Please model this.
Amino acid sequence: QAKRLGRNTFRFYSATMHEKIRERRLIEKELRQAIEENQLSLVYQPKADMKGQQILGLEALVRWNHPELGWISPGTFIPIAEETGLIHPLGKWLLHSVCVQNRSWQEKGLPPIPMAVNLSPYEIRQEKIVEHVQEVLAETGLEPQWLELEITEGSLLEDSFATLKTLEQLKSLGIRIAIDDFGTGYSSLAYINRFPIDALKIDKSFVDKIVLGAKDAKLVDAIIGIANIMDLTVIAEGVEKEEQLKLLESFGCHQFQGYFFSRPLPADAMEEMLRQHNNKPLTGS
Ligand code: C2E
Ligand code: MG
Ligand code: MG
Ligand code: MG
Model:
């Protein structure tokens, strides 16, 4: 195609490719430094009950504010971290920071809640992951039931035997395991049932669709119904509207995460919310 359209087009394409490669190299170099120099931070998003009266858990999400480039989204740098192997030191830092934060809130007398960390498929496929989690729990003194690992549905599909063994070992440490972005990976609940999991997070794309069409609503209704039979905690992600909340609740979903209740917040703001909304409703949006 480029050839047919002439030289200029070709040059245009090759320049963008070049730029992309340069950008990747830059991010790789800067990310390595960011991990070492503590430029990364965490924000926390609550998982609430229907009325927003109780915060049932938190999800930690990584943020990167580069001194010159500004905010870089995890959607940009996580894939680069995965390709370059930087995901391993990054993941260790994340896990450690979340356990330290959870422990510190418990020591301040806040009600203990499970805190979730996202685990990249590259981390699950690394043999040492079980050891790492065990080490972090020992170092920080956090009881395992307050740590949850979110793994995407997609990461169960590859190398499933090894993944099953790893998840069984992680589970035996006493931590919780949740399937993230469920509905995007073309796997069935019957397939997922083979893995030792505690919770299922319904992907935002489904949460968006339930208010648009009866067919999608029925599908999500069925998924939640089966997940309940399987004794899984069901969490809806990306809930933005009250209408979605009401429908999901009528389908049997009991935990909700999304901008309707709260955006992800930095640690100090989250701490304030945990204090204030300890049994008082969140305001909603
Ligand atoms: P995820 O784990 O599915 O996280 C949910 C994403 O949806 C987050 O984006 C969150 O800010 C956003 N979100 C939550 N509620 C709403 C809502 O109501 N509306 C909309 N439009 N968005 C909402 P974020 O923080 O940009 O993270 C994007 C993805 O990057 C995450 O998807 C996760 O896959 C990855 N990620 C983020 N932090 C980490 C991390 O610490 N480690 C790893 N391995 N991946 C991470
Ligand atoms: Mg997640
Ligand atoms: Mg998710
Ligand atoms: Mg998602």
Summary: The longest strand covers residues 55-66. Residues 1-11 have pLDDT under 50 and may be disordered. The longest helix spans residues 7-36.
